[in-house]
Specification:
The chain has about 160 residues and is mostly helical. The protein has 2 domains: about 70 residues; about 45 residues, Arc Repressor Mutant, subunit A. The protein contains 4 helices and no strands. Helix 2 crosses helix 3 and helix 3 packs across helix 4. The longest helix has about 90 residues. It is rod-shaped, with a radius of gyration of 36 Å. It starts with a helix and ends with a helix. The mean pLDDT is about 85. It comes from Halobacillus litoralis.
């Protein structure tokens, strides 16, 4: 009878030990899953930060463009006013002079690629992250993030 109880006790202990190992394995899997979720959340946050920086840069450029347009329009309006005053004066003096409409002024806008494309072009040309950051007058971390996200998006597609 004692032997039978000992065998039953060993079997119960073995089952308990196996249950403990199974529980430990489940806990580790849950911790790994939580860590992976934190990494994904961090990557998403970095991605949104990158997009936000890009949008801010575009807004800044658009603000500069609008300011330049306003300045040009004001300058043109001023020139038109002065021309009209001169024209009025000259018409009073001699009406035989012909009217010549003002010629359109070309903007002279030059295509400027975005920061993303500049970073990728310089990287393709073999520049390091630090050299690219110096050339674009940006932070090293910002350039690294832009390049890193581009690599990740290319891997996923």
């Amino acid at each position: 009878m004692t032997v039978f109880l000992l065998v039953v006790s060993f079997i119960i202990d073995g089952v308990l030990v196996m249950a403990l190992f199974a529980m430990m394995k489940k806990v580790r899997q849950a911790e790994e899953l939580e860590l992976r979720q934190k990494q994904v959340a961090s990557e998403i946050e970095d991605l949104f930060t990158s997009y936000l920086m890009e949008i801010k840069e575009e807004n800044r450029r658009m603000g500069e463009w609008v300011t330049q347009k306003k300045d040009k329009q004001e300058a043109e309006a001023h020139v038109m006013e002065s021309n009209s005053k001169e024209t009025d004066e000259t018409m009073e003096v001699s009406e035989s002079k012909d009217y010549t409409p003002p010629e359109p002024v070309e903007d002279g806008e030059v295509y400027q690629p975005s920061i993303h494309s500049q970073v990728f072009e310089l990287k393709k040309e073999g520049y390091t992250i630090e050299e690219i950051a110096k050339q674009l007058n940006k932070g090293k971390t910002e350039v690294e993030l832009l390049y890193k996200f581009h690599q990740k998006s290319n891997k996923k597609t």
